[in-house]
Write a structure and sequence with these properties.
12 strands
């Protein structure tokens, strides 16, 4: 793929309020994971089928809440959505695991709070299954949902 093919992404909002990012003319569409990713930094690169991201691919976005932080999305796409193993990383966070139709099906989200204490959320079927905090000795204390 040439540099000319990797064009700045244009945000498009559908009448059904489902948002997606679209590459330049002839490019693939990628449905956004959440409304907080409304600022796309780079176009989707990877497999494409019927105008939608399909197969292994990646793109980058930044959040409207913090435009200085860039997130990289790398994973398997089907019909423009994450479907399969994927990673979403930034300089401050990481999320890895299985996505289904852009939903965090079985993932672990890791970050550090304002005090420098590491924490993680474990997602199951789109819901937080566990919330864990770490102490200074590497041990973690988790709260699980029933």
């Amino acid at each position: 793929m040439t540099i000319a093919a990797v064009i700045t992404v244009i945000l498009v909002s559908l009448a059904s309020s489902v948002s997606f990012a679209q590459t330049g003319k002839g490019g693939c569409k990628v449905f956004l994971i959440s409304e907080s990713q409304l600022t796309i930094v780079t176009a989707y690169t990877g497999g494409c089928k019927n105008g939608l991201a399909d197969g292994q691919g990646s793109y980058k976005y930044s959040s409207i809440n913090d435009p200085n932080v860039t997130f990289s999305v790398n994973g398997k796409f089907r019909n423009g959505k994450l479907n399969g193993n994927a990673t979403i990383t930034s300089s401050q966070t990481s999320e890895r695991g299985e996505f289904r139709e852009n939903v965090q099906w079985n993932t672990i989200y890791k970050a550090v709070d304002d005090k420098g204490v590491p924490f993680e959320y474990q997602f199951r079927k789109g819901e937080i299954f566990a919330s864990c905090r770490f102490n200074g000795q590497g041990k973690r204390n988790c709260t699980y949902r029933n």
